[in-house]
Write a structure and sequence with these properties.
The structure holds 2 protein chains of 2 kinds. Chain A is α+β, with helices and mostly antiparallel strands. Helices cover 41% and strands 28% of the residues of chain A. Chain B folds into 2 domains: 32-144 and 183-279, Rossmann fold (3-Layer(aba) Sandwich), CATH 3.40.50; 287-378, Alpha Horseshoe (Serine Threonine Protein Phosphatase 5, Tetratricopeptide repeat). Helices cover 41% and strands 32% of the residues of chain B. The chains are: A alpha+beta, B alpha/beta.
């Protein structure tokens, strides 16, 4: 009787504390939201700006040949060499600094390099990938009762986790220990408050096994850039790589291999004498969960297989490799050629010129004309900022960045305390500092 | 339940505190001096990276029986690894403006270090515009393991009371459970020599090792990490020591190629830090000054303009927070003398302020620990 009244009192206490918690929870959440919104970055627009290359290639060098015959493919296990070379040529041509073509051979004797110096790109493409299969074990807690089942399933759906049902009463089993899971506790308590479940639901811990498949892909490009003019000189060598890794749990493979409830059944006579709800009765080593012992060995004599169409759908694989190639080439391209990059910057709305939309559409030259048509004295801070943005977006020389910086400073003078304008000043400062350093290097 | 409310409150307060503290910070790039004196060396060439030993293997363990399967690499594959490591060193050497890397294949063609030493020791040897040559030798060992942990687990069964009269049941049953795991461990040892050509002498020799280890599955990831960390220096994860990734999962072991790339990048960055002036990035808090634009300008990295405006503002009204921010700006642009003056002025006005004292401490440490930085910079 005493124990039953304790349980009732506990239940009433829980309801009380829940209402206190609800009262506290809302203001706390609101204050956190305020903090987040005050700290979070504003929604940014992206626009394309041009950046200088890391090295300065002599102006006369226009033609670049990617020598496919001089690009080693010994370790190109994914067979992506031609894709890498084509992509490299395409990207370099997009930036219009060079006229690039991929060639299988080049007779250097036929080139008048004194008249028209050329450059060649050669090197090596390394790629690989593997499918690593295996089996893992986890511990799960199966929850019964109506509220327990709903809350378990709800919490699992939130975290996109696999759930299984126990073989006894179809309790919902999910990874982790019952008491330590905050999300499940919160949901259980909410159901309890709604009158769906008066007490803590029953639980039954299980050992589960499941199969997984890990897919990884890797790409690396080692390239050199050599100018053949009056003399032959290699200006850059780079090695860059990128990777992809995804772990796929085979959800259908989940098996409950040992359930504590089933063990408790075999100990029925012992349990009937010791029904104590609060303190656990430890039962020493009853059995081995032998079904959790993996029979299969996953590493053998042969290297792991390369992902096939069964592991990664062809369309997705193509997309992933495309991204890998792009990421791998990025640094090499930026080393030798001026490049365009998407910059996160907010366009100022308003102003007399209303040039924000034009900037968002990438029409920076048009925006520049419209703003410059307004007399300087009549321009708003937004106009000055957008003018700076227009100069930055179409910059081809350090002077353009100097002008952009000047316009951002004017915007800041007209609209003191505007973070957006300060960001413009900071961005151009960084670029100009880099440029000065580069100029010094070249001078040296 | 009380614990539960307490936990929630704590989480929310922690998030709030984190957001508050992470709001206004200045990101500063500082220069670190080279550890080895390389002041006389401007133009460098990179020679061959010889292979000491390369060993890749798969290991399996079931019921205490271990099996090892080596992955055999042909000469071309081994050479490719050597070239990759060499190219990573070049990547980082070219990223610093301290050296000019001359890409001459004259040295790369030499078979090994002995050939290089013989070449440069020939009396009067001179090559075009090269002051020193960097050459190396590497040892690499990577293994992947498929094994099983065994542990005793207490499985709980809890049944609440069914009625007011009935009691519940709470049992813990000990079970022996198998926990399969996969792990990888890679170690790269790299000896790098910097040989001055005239006079022919070895300026610097370094031998560095990096180990990467990762484990997925198994019973306890924590215990494995502790073992790995106590045995070796686990590869630090930072932007310069990791390959770019388009999708990443902590549950996927990196391939052999990726480990080689990551280790080479890490070791190369260590070497470059030793022989060249390098840039490091730090974040420091910005004070709430009276001058309205200073905080946003510093946050945005517009240090020059912030200096200009803060100098005017502090001349008229020397607010200690503004003075600290001015010091921060001077520190950011590398003017440590003026940074120290500003920090000291701020601290004199508020001697209790930890932020101001930290600013002074930083500059003092820089001046004390890195006297060679100035000399190295002057040599350029």
């Amino acid at each position: 009787m005493r124990v039953a009244s304790t349980v009732r009192r506990l239940s009433t206490d829980m309801k009380k504390t829940m209402s206190v918690q609800q009262k506290l929870f809302l203001p706390m959440c609101l204050s956190t939201l305020v903090l987040i919104s005050s700290c979070a970055a504003p929604k940014l627009s992206q626009f394309e700006v041009q950046r200088p290359s890391r090295i300065t290639v002599p102006r006369e060098v226009k033609k670049v040949f990617i020598r496919a015959d001089l690009v080693d493919e010994t370790n190109d296990k994914l067979g992506i060499k031609s894709k890498v070379l084509q992509q490299l040529a395409q990207e370099l041509n997009r930036f219009e600094r060079f006229n690039v073509s991929v060639v299988n051979t080049l007779d250097e004797a036929n080139i008048d390099s004194e008249k028209e110096p050329i450059a060649i790109i050669q090197g090596e493409v390394i790629s690989g990938g593997e499918v690593d299969r295996g089996q893992f074990t986890d511990l799960a807690t199966c929850t019964g009762g109506l509220g327990g089942r709903l809350s378990s399933a709800g919490a699992a759906a939130i975290s996109d986790e696999t759930i299984t049902l126990d073989s006894w009463r179809g309790y919902v089993c999910r990874r982790g220990a019952f008491a330590s899971n905050v999300a499940e506790m919160a949901l259980s308590s909410a159901f309890a408050l709604a009158g769906l479940n008066e007490v803590i639901p029953p639980k039954n811990q299980v050992v589960r096994t499941y199969k997984y498949k890990n897919i990884s892909l890797f790409a690396q490009a080692n390239f050199s850039f050599t100018v053949i003019g009056l003399k032959r000189e290699t200006l850059a060598i780079r090695a860059d790589s990128s990777s992809f890794g995804r772990s796929i749990t085979e959800k259908d493979s989940y098996r409950n291999v040992k359930e504590s409830h089933l063990i408790s059944l075999t100990l029925g006579s012992l349990i009937s004498y010791t029904r104590i709800p609060i303190f656990p009765i430890p039962i020493r080593e009853v059995a081995l969960a032998s079904r959790s012992n993996p029979k299969q060995i996953f590493y053998g004599q042969k290297p792991l297989p390369v992902p096939s169409i069964y592991d990664l759908p062809p369309k997705e694989k193509k997309k992933v490799i495309q991204k890998l190639v792009m990421l791998t080439l990025q640094s090499f391209i930026r080393t030798i050629s001026p490049y365009k990059v998407m910059v996160d910057a907010e366009v100022a709305s308003g102003g007399k010129a209303k040039a924000g939309d034009l900037l968002k559409e990438g029409k920076s030259k048009q925006a520049r004309k419209i703003i410059e048509a307004i007399p300087e004295g009549k321009r708003d801070s937004q106009d000055w900022y957008n003018l700076g943005l227009a100069y930055e977006a179409s910059a081809v020389s350090p002077e353009d960045y100097e002008d952009a910086r000047r316009f951002y400073i004017t915007a800041l003078e007209k609209g003191p305390g505007t973070k957006l304008y300060a960001q413009g000043v900071g961005r151009t400062r960084l670029y100009l500092a880099e440029k000065r350093r580069l100029a010094k290097q070249i001078q040296d | 339940m009380n614990n539960y409310i307490f936990n929630h409150t704590l989480y929310i307060l922690l998030i709030g505190a984190f957001l508050l503290t992470s709001c206004a910070k200045a990101t500063l790039t500082m220069r670190s001096p080279a550890e080895i004196n390389t002041r006389d060396i401007r133009n460098i060439a990179v020679g061959k990276f010889e292979i000491g030993q390369i060993s890749l293997k798969y290991k399996t363990e079931r019921n205490g029986i271990w099996q090892t399967h080596p992955v055999l690499l042909n000469v071309a594959q081994q050479k490719s690894i050597s070239r990759s490591v060499r190219a990573r060193v070049i990547n980082l050497l070219t990223a610093t403006s301290y050296f000019k890397v001359v890409f001459s294949d004259e040295f790369e063609k030499l078979e090994n270090d002995t050939a290089l030493q013989q070449l440069v020791s020939v009396r009067g040897y001179k090559t075009l515009n090269v002051d020193a040559v960097i050459s190396g030798k590497l040892w690499l060992e990577i293994e992947r393991t498929d094994g099983v942990d065994l542990s005793k687990e207490g499985l709980e069964y809890f049944r609440p009371p069914r009625s007011r009269r009935s009691l519940g049941l709470n049992l813990t049953v000990d079970q022996v459970v198998w926990w399969p795991y996969k792990s990888t461990r890679g170690t790269l040892g790299l000896e790098i020599k910097m040989t001055h050509l005239v006079p022919a002498e070895v300026v610097a020799t370094t031998f560095e090792t990096r180990t990467y280890s990762q484990r997925i599955g198994g019973r306890s990831t924590e215990s494995f990490q502790q073992i790995a960390e106590s045995l070796t220096s686990v590869l630090p994860t930072s932007k310069t020591t990791e390959t770019e990734s388009i999708e990443k999962s902590a549950d996927v072991l990196p391939s052999f190629e990726q480990i080689i790339a990551d280790l080479a990048l890490s070791i190369a960055s260590g070497f470059v830090r030793r022989v060249a002036i390098t840039d490091k990035t730090f974040s420091y808090p910005i004070a709430d000054g009276k001058f309205p634009n200073s905080k946003i300008l510093i946050e945005a990295g517009a240090y020059d303009l912030a200096i200009e405006q803060l100098q005017q503002a502090t001349a008229e009204n020397p607010d200690p927070n503004d003075l600290y921010n001015l010091g921060l700006c001077f520190e950011a642009v590398g003017d440590y003398g003026l940074a120290q003056t500003s920090y000291r002025e701020a601290w004199s006005a508020e001697p209790e302020n930890l932020l101001f004292a930290q600013g002074m401490g930083r500059i003092e440490r820089l001046q004390r620990e890195n006297p060679q930085l100035l000399r190295q910079l002057e040599s350029r």
